[in-house]
Amino acid sequence: MSGLRTPCPGADLARRACLGRLAGAAGAWALGLPARAQAWPTRPLRVVLGYTPGGSADTTARELTVPLTAALGQPLVVDYKAGASGTIAGAEVARAAPDGYTLGLLDNAPLTIVPALRNAGYDPLAAFTPITMVSHVPQVLVASTSAGVGTLRELIEAMRKAPGKFSYASGGAGSVGHLTTELLKSRTGTYALHVPYRGGAPAINALLAGEVQFAFLTPTATQGFIQAGKLKPLGVSSRSRVASLPGVPTIAESVAPGFEAPGWFALVGPAGLPEPVVSTLRRSVAQVLATPATVSRLEALGQTLPPAGQDVRGVITAELATWRQLVAERKLVIEG
After folding, report:
1. 318: how many CB neighbours lie within 10 A of its CB?
2. Fewer CB in 10 Å around end: N or C, the chain?
3. pLDDT digits 0-9 by tens, 10-60
4. Is residue 167 assigned to a domain?
5. Which positions of the chain have pLDDT values less than 70?
6. What's the CA gap between 21 and 15, in Å, rounded?
7. Three-state secondary structure call for residue 42
């Protein structure tokens, strides 16, 4: 019986030593294989989202995960980890194994805003592998009809004349709307009392009841009330106007040149995510975002596409600096 031959000449002892070296080399080679050679992914992927089902964030996640499921050949399952301004979701991703099977669709609250305000439980620049920007989410400044203002300039002038009269709502202390308003106050030299609520819906109810005068909220949350004439849109926080609100000027063109404070969603993974996995995901997401139907649906949510190849790590770094400076200047304190 001939049997299999090893490439090791000599006696049994030498043969065993050689086989050991071959086995070790094979193991090291396998560990160093790129994801494509290992046929990644071979099982479903989990996409952690810091929101509850049914909202615009959930819709955004599905606009991404459904076509990516087809592109990658494995299901992408949304895992809802709402609470603590997205930091529960952020921590879940940060402590996951960097194997490409746990990703996070995170907005700038857990990645830049909360870390600027307090200890988020992780370092946003060290705990994650930035993969790609998915969408920008402009905030629209809406006023209560009882506020008696028709333009953003009128609101700013009214706040300057009567600084104790105005208050603004947010979806929570440390939310995007909270810090965006504080940035506007800083840039315009105005004052308004912050009244935080537990989410966007209660904030809208407060506006409708005239309990507060204005708030930064998403176009999706406010559009129906705007169309019904119950809320007055005064400006958007993005660099350019929003497709779903073409008649609403940017804050930069109205009262504060250079002002820009959009929300955004980025796809991230745990630190140490293999480069082949990152490259595959970047390429696949770019293909999804190039689809006209996807673009149309995101625009219907009041979102815009990011610039091609936008540097997520660079955005996080720049925003952290902006928010930390604002927090120090305004002496903002949010308890963890």
Report:
1. 12
2. N
3. 444 444 444 344 334 333 323 333 434 458 999 999 999 999 898 889 999
4. yes
5. 1-38, 335-336
6. 10
7. coil
